[in-house]
Amino acid sequence: MLALTTCLSGIVALSVPQTVFANDAASSHSPLKATSHTTQAKKVSAKKSAPRSTEAASAESVVVLGAGAARETQTISRRAIQEMTPGTSPFKTLSKLPGVMFTSSDPLGSYEWSQQIIIRGFDQSRLGFTMDGIPLGNLAYGNDNGLSIGRALETENNGPSTLTQGAGALGVAASNDLGGALQFTSVDPTKKFGVDVAGTIGSASTWRTFARINSGELKGGGRFYVSYNHQDANKWKGDGVQVQDQANAKYIQPFGEHVKLTVFGDWSKRKENDYQDLSLAQISKYGYRLDNITGNYALAKQIATAYQNGTAFPSSVENQDTVYYNAAGLREDAMGYGRLDFDITSRLKGFVTGYGHTNTGEGAWVTPYLATPAALGGSPLTTRTTEYDIHRAGFIGGLTYKIANHTIDWGFWFENNNFEQARRFYPLQDSGAPSSIHWYQGNSFYTQWQSTFNTKTYQVHLGDTWQIMPALKLTYGFKSLIVDNSARALSGNLMGTPTGTTYPSGSLSASNGFLPQIGANYRINQHNEIFADYARNMAAFDSAQTSGPFSTTTAGFEVLQKKLKPEMSNTEELGYRFHNRTFQASVTGYYVEFQNRLLAVTQGVGIQGNASVLSNVGGVTARGVDVAANWKFARNWSLFASYAFNNSLYDDNVYADGVVSARIKGRHTVGMPSNLANVELGYDDGAIWGNVLMQFQDKRYYTYTNDASVPANAVFNLNVGYRFQSQNWFLRGLDAQINVTNLFDKKYVATVGSNGFVNSDPSGTFQTLQAAAPRMVFFTLRKHFD
């Protein structure tokens, strides 16, 4: 094991200093007794002669390329996350890793309607996400089983984030990780008292405030922090705001040397006005700045009246879908967990976690397709909502036993999720513009549909890591997964009069008792290693009216119920890693078979909210290569680069009643570029730091037949900062940074598929594209008090 220790120490030596609050500590998943990171941070902060020294800044690497692992994996340090503008989604930081395609139409990547992450051709609905081991669900916009990481954890409290591109580990609490897993962590409270405050201002009238208090170690050994932030920004085009309030709290209490309790709580309330979904034809005619006309209620009414009466549209618009008056997303979440870690013996360790999450959500869209009744206001417009309510609770536990050269791991996960969803319409007055963003409660006049869903998830796993010889390690095991879905469609009503429902009630189950994984890592010598692995995974069905099997018609569901199969993936990887004191690199080739693919084809424009057409349509075969390198080529200078080639092709045409309805065999999968590349040049001397990142995305298709696509783009981002090196009370612990997104102000399409995908769009009129934000600048000041 001496050689392995030397290899790992070589990676740590690649540390590139990054700015961070002085008292940030390790994540909650550090070993029970391993407090070395926290202790080291405490010792560093105690060196008053150099409170922001290079030594402190170099405590962790920017990117660690998974040395010793039996699969492709990378970890992004929390300091790399802190380099970004506060409030930036950690997905944006992770997007520089090989094989990761992340886009959003806002500069911070936090606007959820446009968030899109695809890894090796698998979109976010087929990836696993956790925070401190707690499942975050599938991260769909209308999420039925979780919440986004931006609503679960303040960015200032992010610990290291780990990406596994091929398949998540056996114990990952996710029922849909066909294409990999992203595991986020929260920082622990420190053993020393401290207060952190920060303020950010920037383009689009952005401002953000943050404060956190660490208690330090209390009598009895416990410690905690509480934090709060408020973020407010205008949209970069059109009228509207994106506002979020959030609070986190975390408490750690050791009970002797062998038991530790961790409690975490999160509350978030987010309100965001939407950017309009665009088509290629609209971009060509109106440009990228076309947006909702929230400031012009009179024009919105004229458009709706023309559509409803069949008269001419105003000269500035083509039809009722050219522009909409307004749209917004509103989410309020409360999430918490309690985790107990315990050492039963020196060989046997375990943990058990209980968690809960509640969510109230609403997606609002002012629609010209239905007028407000005269008795309720008479506007030719109404506000159409999709309303969400999540109540989920679960338990996760595990045991680890070490014997001889084996480390045996067993664990379980159970979750019960009750989800309610409804489509309602609210009246608008003919005179006087409505409030642009607020909760609509208690005065709907039409419920188009409403349904309740229950999902029960049962997962167990058993695995072993066998150190066959000092240079050879084998990991193997399996998990069993059962997910039971049930739905009950309730009748709608129009002004108190019941109406029939066209959506299904019933149940489905996805189960597989043997989902194996096996991998090996062979250390050739001190600097070189090879690895190989295989994993088989299954994805459960969605329980929602807007996605999955229950999103189709009753008749369609009755057909699906008899023959629908859960999606499956088989992933094979072969890779090589090199690491020494100044350089680390990895190359991974992969082959993935994606089976029983579920295809949901959008019917009509998104604002109509029509039922989708869903079916099993064969498979996808993906082949590709991921390459990453991190080079400390001179004192204080570093270079990180990654490249990914992905060739994901549909295996089959789509059939309807025995006839080909879409000839997509051999076509590229939607949304995923064939080539991705990132190059980041960084500098850090302990006081001055900075980096410039270039990200390249190849062209992306948004139709299954590949007859419509958006062109490739290359975008640059700049981050620079200064850590004050002074004993002066005011300057000690003070950081300043400037972030510039889209440095050269490039105009391009950020997100494709915001309204779903279609078979073909020869005229380029399908509105499912989001324009990228222009160049934007942000300035942040941080101060630590101890």
From TrEMBL:
Entry's family note: Belongs to the TonB-dependent receptor family.
Membrane topology field: Multi-pass membrane protein
Domain TonB-dependent receptor-like beta-barrel: 279-743
Span of the signal peptide: 1-22
Subcellular compartments: Cell outer membrane
Protein name: TonB-dependent receptor
Organism listed in the record: Gluconobacter japonicus
Gene3D superfamilies recorded: TonB-dependent receptor, beta-barrel domain (2.40.170.20), TonB-dependent receptor, plug domain (2.170.130.10)
